[in-house]
Amino acid sequence: MRQRNTIHACLKAASAMAAALLFSTTLQAQESQFPERDVQYIIPFGPGGESDISARLQQKYFQQITGNQLIIQYMAGGGGAVGWSQLNEMDGDGYTIMGTNLPHIILQPMQQGAGYQTEDIKNFIFFHYSPDALLVTNDSPYKTLDDFIAAAKKTPGAVTVSGSGTYSANDIANQRFEALADITTTYIPFKGTGASVAALLGDQVQAEWGYTTTAANHSDKMRPLAVATDERHPLFPDVPTFKELGYDMTGGAYRGIAVPRSTPDDVTRELSEIFSDINANPEFRKSMEALGFVLIDEDVDQVEDFLAEQQRQYQRVAERMDAGQ
Amino acid sequence: METLGFMLAALSPFNLLLAVAGVAAGIIIGSLPGLSATMAVAVLVPVTFGMPTESALILLGAIYTGAIYGGSYAAILVNTPGTPSAIATTFDGYPMARRGDGDLAVTLSTLSSVIGGLVGGLALFCLAPLLALVALKFGPVEYFWLAIFGLTLISSLSEGSTLKGFIGAGIGLLLSTVGVAVVGGDTRYTFGSQFLLGGVETISALIGLYCIPVLIELVATPSEHLKPPEASRGVRFREGVTLMFKGKWNALRSAIIGTIVAILPGAGGSIASLVSYSEARRASPRSEQFGKGEPDGIIATETANNATVGGGFIPTFVLGIPGTPPDAVILGALLVQGFRTGPEMFTTNASVTYTFMGGLLVATVLMLPIGLLIGRYAFKSIVSVPKAILVPTIAFMTVIGTYAIRNNPFDVVVMVVLGVAGWLLARWGIKPSPIVLGLILGPIAEQGFVQGYLMGNATGSVAGVFFGRPLSLGIIALTVLFALYPLWSARRKRTHGEVVAHEQST
């Protein structure tokens, strides 16, 4: 059945293209009917990660809303940089979109040789985030966040914390929290969340900077000490937020979508509306929240302010990191 | 009893059909250089969304296991491992094909893959929760030593001088540093090119280093690629079974090694097949035949790498930590379906889990008839197709395959450059295997070292972290043993020879 759908969609796409060649002028007049064929959704990471899972969930509802398919492609490399640095060279017709991630697109250009600037990327929506969470194993001696802080204060640097990558969301979360709680820990970067989880579960480290999504996936073996959301997460009603405990920290790994810069504004707006609609679907919300994500709706009108605010925050942390080195 | 019922559900017509289709598709994809198991699984994930979870898993598992086996065709017939776990299969598979025994090699690989797959699948079925604990015992330091162990193995294993083996591994290590470092985040050796940020992709390097030299040789020499068999003689099944029976301990040992190594996330098939290959060579009375077309070499590597399929699912299901890249994709597909890994998989979701395990075993058994059938055609077509068609076809595949991995045109450039460099280096005695293994193991070693160093700083004793843990000491001891063994056996042979000479003279 599905295959027939794909064939059907292919035929439709082919006829749409033929029509576009013949009647390109009439087509321009009908631009409000966007999209008329399948849309390529490039994920600048490998398959299987959270960006991929999110895109897979959007895929189904995209088809419900538009009648066209969202075709997911992968373009992994350099923590996303390989994809983002090529985005603006792609066709700006709205049929090519690419997942974007924070803090990646802010932090990478601060390093040398990322191949793009944050401003180069034309984001049209940020739709959710994986909130930061400080995780420990179920039998950890740290029962509360205070226990963790006390241990880190007693012997600075002796408490080890795993996380995914350097200059990553986890690394930043650790830096931010160290500053807020005035403690020093040893952050140990791993390749990907899987390896970071394995280090925690194998007692190689005492805690892990991960996300609510990590805690949700491994709820039988680990628990969050605190989560970086505004309100308590519905999956973890007993876990306090950092804010409640007096540490002004919300955020995590945000996911958005961008188009090549040459994409017309009205098409970009259509795309933003489609993905806002997906975000509004109750069934979609439920499956996203069950995985531990928190949905946000920074659409095409708000995305610029949102990014500017995020940029300010990360700038501060980055300055602190540079000063510390 | 209930478990058995769940497993039998794998035999429903629909599930059986998926297993057949999955294995066949997997074998074909795996046999084409560049089209990897990960890609095959990722492409099919959306197709599985409309299916019941257990059927989706069976299809994905069947493709995966088929692809790992299919990787041996290219290794044997074109000297190009279709997947990294088939690297060691080229050692003896290609020499066998050169001397006209390609059909026998393919049959052996089929039998071995089935046996390895069954052992790995049964381990997943019986011992998963227990074996998952082993995975957690491996910390950064253990991974560091394991990578060093792997590098020692490859350097001493590959044909030619050990010193040149180490030089090759060093070149691979250097290549592995290109791009953005995982630990530390610095950008290294990209020369300002954004395309190099992602580093040298392993599969592209694999294709370049193995395939391009073969193509150059094919064009440069007038003789045919492989010697065609004198007469049509089927798949030489009986001969294969006899050899297999003779090598039964080798197969069992390799399957167990494969299962255990696969449990370690990230280490995977390439190390598993190397370790079992070197063990097979060490234990064999014909050890000097290894690398020249010894059937036991194929048995060792192919049982080991198919055992990694079942083994890799162990951390994936029990811990939610993917054992191999294809496992990561399958795990993602499970999450999208609202399915949790962990203890639930063996309690509330036991029906799905055990049906899948049953399906994986069924798919493994199906590899025998399907594999022999496809293998026969693969062999026939490679042997009978004239060079003028074979060379451009393979060349075309290398380019398409390399590009498809990350949709990055620059990877194709890297592939060709490495290919030509690899051809030159091979003339000079530096073979591709140590280079590729250096590339794969370099990041594991580097990350393990830096993480271990950071952990050591935190506890105040770096030496204690690296040398104070029983598991690391065990791996270090093995490394020393394997590094010194060739020297020791050479000396023994020499003294033995002297004794014989002495006796003869008296």
TrEMBL record, chain B:
Residues 16-437 form the DUF112 domain. This is Tripartite tricarboxylate transporter permease. PANTHER family: TRICARBOXYLIC TRANSPORT PROTEIN. Keywords: Membrane, Transmembrane, Transmembrane helix. Pfam families: TctA (PF01970). It comes from Salinicola corii. The lineage of its organism: Bacteria, Pseudomonadati, Pseudomonadota, Gammaproteobacteria, Oceanospirillales. The chain crosses the membrane at residues 16-45, 57-76, 114-136, 143-160, 166-183, 195-216, 255-277, 354-379, 385-405, 412-430, 471-488.
